Each structure stands twice: as C-alpha cells, then as structure tokens.
Amino acid sequence: MQNNTCKICRRAGTKLFLKGERCSGPKCAVIRKPSPPGPKRKGRFKQMSEYGKELQEKQKLRNWYNLRERQFAKYVKDILKRRGKVENAANTLIQTLESRFDNVIFRLGFASSRIQARQFVSHGHFLINGKAVDKPSYQLEKGDKVAVNPVSLKKKNIEKVALTIKKYQPPAWLKLNPEKLEGEVVGAPNLIEAAPPAELSTIFEFYSR
Fold first, then answer.
1. Are 73 and 49 contacting, i.e. CB atoms less than 8 angstroms apart?
2. How many Å apart are CA 29 and CA 37, to the nearest integer?
3. What is the pLDDT of residues 111-149, one digit of tens each?
4. What is the pLDDT of residues 65-79, one digit of tens each?
C-alpha cells in the first residue's frame, strides 16, 4: 500500500526521491503507477492552466527539499524583494536551499533522503564546527565542518551510514571524509549541479501574483 509520500511523486509526474533507495528501484510508485493518484481522467497532465503549471512546479521543488509551504514561500519571497540586487534569482534560491543543514547532510551521503536528513538533524545526530545544532534550516557557509555527534555513533541508522558511505561521491562544493564521518563545505552550490526537477522561473511567477 502506498503512503502519501509516494502519492506526492505520482501527482508531480516525476521522481522526487523522497524515500531514498526505494525510489531508485523497481518498487518506486512512479514506475509501477505513473498516472496521478485518484480517479483516472485522460490527459490530466496535459490540460493545465498557466496557474496550474506554476503551482505544480512550485510543489515539485518544495517537496523535493522537504519543506513546508511557509518555509518555502519565505525563501522565494525574500529573493523577490531583493530581485534588483540579485544577479541570478534562480541560482540564489538553489544556493539557499542547498546550504540548509538538512540538505548538506543528505548531499554528503549521511542520509538516504532529505526526510531522513531532517530527522537526523532534529535529533541532534550531527555537529557543525564541533557544536550541536538541531535546526534543519541552519545555513552553512564555506569552511563549515560537519561531523557525526559522538553520542550518536552507536545508533543503528548512523552505523548503517558508516558502512554505505565509503564509496559515496558528494557534489563538488562538499568534501567528504568517510573514515571519520566528517564533511566540509568547500565551495558554493550551483544550479547546474543541483539539477532541480522544476522550472524555477514559473515558481517566481507564482509568488509574484
């Protein structure tokens, strides 16, 4: 039986990788049932207004980063307020979202999904520069170092990470030390490498209404 997480991907019409490893296998709901959830109607993805398309793209990116509407809207609206001072609004948005603590944990391979990464951070399983931080939205900057909290090393989920992370390759803006279970921000995330599943210009249009 599918849960609401799988329905989010089916409704978006694309994989948002909300359930980690399961999304890459044959059990993925988008592969088994590519049509949207609910009563079947022909051409549900084709017959869509401009507003509907903007809403769909917004939902894709919001769910991809596992954010509540209020959180996501704040990020976009803050950039819209600074649009004249921001060279590339789309890249700025992605840099902000990618630099979140929970996303950095996911990108370093310490979690199989952003949902799990958020849980790890909220439970205090990771440190930033040697200090415990349990705020998923915390913004990391170049030079910041992330490590597993020593008190969490014997947790089953963390022990599993130590086994699976050895061959993991993080994005170029992050450096990973799998032996020490540590990571460091060595650059800035960018739009191309992040490869978001949504058309960002329509998201700014949605919040500009």
1. no
2. 10
3. 999 999 999 999 999 999 999 999 999 999 999 999 999
4. 999 999 999 999 999
| Distance in angstroms (rounded) separating the CA atoms of residues 42 and 53 | 17
> Rounded to the nearest 5°, which phi and psi values hold at 175?
-120, 130
46 with 85, same domain: the answer is: yes
Q: Which of 204, 164, 209, 208 is nearest to 61 (CA)?
A: 204
Q: Are strands 145-148 and 126-128 parallel, antiparallel or unpaired?
A: antiparallel
- Tell me how far apart the alpha carbons of residues 158 and 111 are, in angstroms, rounded to a whole number: 9
77 and 136 within one domain: no
Tell whether 74 and 13 lie within a shared domain. Answer: yes
Q: What are phi and psi of 132, to 5 degrees?
A: -70, 130
Q: 147 by DSSP, 3-state: which?
A: strand
Which residue is listed with tokens 């609401």?
Answer: 4
Residue 191 lies in a domain: no
Residue ranges making up the domain that contains 133: 100-185
